[in-house]
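Q: How would the structure tokens look for this protein?
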Amino acid sequence: MKVLYNNSEIKDGIFLTPMETQNKPKIEYKPSPNSLYTLIIHDPDAVGGNLIHWLIVNISGNNIKNGDELLEYKGPAPPKGSGIHKYIILFLQQNYRINADIDKRQMSMNELYEKLDVNLQPFFSTYFKSKNQYGGKKKKRNKTRKSTFRKSTFRKSRAKPLVLLF
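A: Here is the predicted structure in token form.
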């Protein structure tokens, strides 16, 4: 099985920018006869908890377009400063047709599996990492100091104070 973004195959742990993943990936696989599949792409590192980026159930044959898309594809967009996110792609074999209505993206995988109400068996999985392209960069500081005072000016002197008499 292969997962391709922009005609490049995803290998476990590869880093992709959000710009590289804004379009749906291409999924290539050899199905078992008379089998149904589920495709899930999720981000367990999302700020508010696990986020489902794509959910298709009842995939028959070797074309994911034959399935029922419960959640449309939403490309990764990690918030600035949230660090590196791991995006997990699961392709699971179903025992029977799924009749579910999923209306939210933010939920735990256990909650999702309960809503799907079916025993899913792993068929293939992979993951990639991504990060906000503009987050985490520090601004360059000007090397010249704004203040003309030096710290040594404020150090206590060991010399005796000079007394002037008039």
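The first strand starts at residue 2 and ends at 5.

Residues 47 and 82 are 7 Å apart (CA to CA).

Upvote if useful.
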